[in-house]
């Protein structure tokens, strides 16, 4: 027995986390390597990765730790944050997340591990949830069409500015913002406006539009309702005046206030934007939160971002899908006015379900309680001799205390409450769903006022203007009335989740999207109050744990990528692209090269690249892609020479968008640098590089990363995401900064690209934990297994489907593209048919027709074990045999299991007149009845949905049909 005793030091280590994260164990990896033809992971990646980009040194990161150790370390960081009751406001408020939503949406992998619903037949649950969100926003704003969410309020307002310029009558002129708008919103708009030549004017519009501004022309106006000061005023006169000038009017509105106030649509607004954070979504030090945008019907087809619409399936039954410009930037590229390619789905689902759970009566009651506390607060201050600046307000009271503002704010902090220090003479206090009598007492004491809530309650009037009280009904659809009990809500959430396909059900092999494990250990701290309950503008001294975590994550991402500085502010990959290109622009301008505006982009690049370049004030020049999927070097060199004096930057994705390591990437970078340009390496495919190569070392000057891909933040059904940007030292002075938090970026920065100083800070503990759990060696091995998995699938499928692009040695990177075009030409079976047939086999389809039409891009990730990889390969091989049945004429081209896929349970009932059996339809090879995933709808008619655009819950008479 003694001889077999295991040393305590080894027992204490436990099972390394990388063995939990990486799917194939040592035995499986050996089998996979044998299939690919290599003896080890090192041997495989040595052959696959070009020598010119390889990193010589191991990653200089702390050694990986156990799950228990990392949670303890995170607990220590959390304890360094002070959860002080926030009454700062400015678009961020305390809220109570109903536990049934917290547990069954935010903490439920059935919701947070799903991907963007590009396969709508297996996304019906979250599409219905998003339709609820759109309906709630449309009803509350009084505008008929709402999108499925945007990144935050500041970026939604910036998108509204771009939309106003695109669709309005006035093509020149200025964008006019009321001085009472949130300062972070104004700053984001200014960041977005300057590169595109838009002049922003901020003015007090309380008395109307200044004549000197009107004379210059105004294409758009932004108003805040209620204002940052708390003021609630009738916006209709200024809206009418703006319309007389031909301007498009946007109102940034608080949805909770709109349960009591006349909505923007009734006041004449064309666009409404804002945040849904206070609908049950924690503040999270600034995000993630679902911004919103709603528009008049005539602007519906120009709405940026995601839009969920109602269509019909093959049986004529109602079905939901993404509509219209769901990937506008991929279609319009450099002509796109927005680079937004995603949404904040998980947070939008939470906010929509908050509205479903509370209904109109519950929301009105929460708003009424919030307002009542604000009215009592103001009455107590006035009783104590303190001047309240606004007579009409909803939840925010601004007090004038000449020379004493800092003293009052400090006294409040000592009593456990954060107030907003406006300037030396003014303090603002915001009430919310969580405000209590004790908070009012603490605030009064801080002002040196003694008041009693009970005494004031009978005498203090409300402060909403009678002329603006809302009179119309809203949230009238049954969904907002029938799930009041927790039992009913719980079952509704479960029913919707069962209609979806997420990583908790099976593999999602989407190329370019990296659907890897989102470990529970990584997710757990997100809902701790020490991370979730902090206001983004809280004093820095109260967020020391957060700031340490942010600094460590920035440093570790810099080490992984080879860059010198990283900013975590961009709250999506699209924002990271924009931030990186703005840094390049700032660098050239600082060097006296303002004419360097040409951005070279390969034709195969992500569409967001071109859209982001235009938004950064650049001219896009497309570089050809050769037949092998690599950049056409001859064309690139010709373009570099043609635009040598105007060249700002080359944007490339590495490994390439075609899934291969381009051997001449260093030569490409050198050629651009020799011409005075910069190199932007899109980090979408970083999952193939971590631990093997560093973009900042093989020629990149700047990259954005996708933490929701390589670093394990879940996709959440299409958001949240984080898109940090890494730069070499010479670009660091031009990273994003923030007007309300100096520590968020350099003083010389380009301004904020997100509303909060550190973007979606609330989910940064996920990536911090992943890096801490894995360590440098674990991260490298994860990359190697990702490359192994893609090559294993390529080798298994190659006899049945041609692999379109390969690199050195016939190897691919972390994804492979299989070509269906010859089969489509010969049989009529399309890439859509194969994608939908995979649903019958229990799989989410790979990425369809990107970057090449008629192909499937497959990325297995390192998290899938060999059994799941084989299950997928066997399904694809079985589908190839089914295609052969069509090719031989055994099944007609218009009536076969592929063309009719997916098959629902309902298709089994009634008459059956197909040339294949019911069993072949729903239980194809390898599918067992006990484990069957049943799609809720048949194939959806996309064209019908675009022709008949329905973007909110159908009216009651639709259900009677």
From TrEMBL:
Quaternary structure (record): The glycine cleavage system is composed of four proteins: P, T, L and H.
GO cellular component, one term: glycine cleavage complex
Pfam family, one: GcvP2_C
Protein's recorded name: Glycine dehydrogenase (decarboxylating)
Ranges for domain Glycine cleavage system P-protein N-terminal: 19-447, 461-736
Its EC number(s): 1.4.4.2
GO molecular function terms noted in the UniProt entry: glycine binding; glycine dehydrogenase (decarboxylating) activity; pyridoxal phosphate binding
Cofactor(s) this protein requires: pyridoxal 5'-phosphate
Reaction(s) this enzyme catalyzes, per UniProt: N(6)-[(R)-lipoyl]-L-lysyl-[glycine-cleavage complex H protein] + glycine + H(+) = N(6)-[(R)-S(8)-aminomethyldihydrolipoyl]-L-lysyl-[glycine-cleavage complex H protein] + CO2
Protein function: The glycine cleavage system catalyzes the degradation of glycine. The P protein binds the alpha-amino group of glycine through its pyridoxal phosphate cofactor; CO(2) is released and the remaining methylamine moiety is then transferred to the lipoamide cofactor of the H protein.
Domain Glycine dehydrogenase C-terminal: 782-903
Coiled coil spans: 626-653
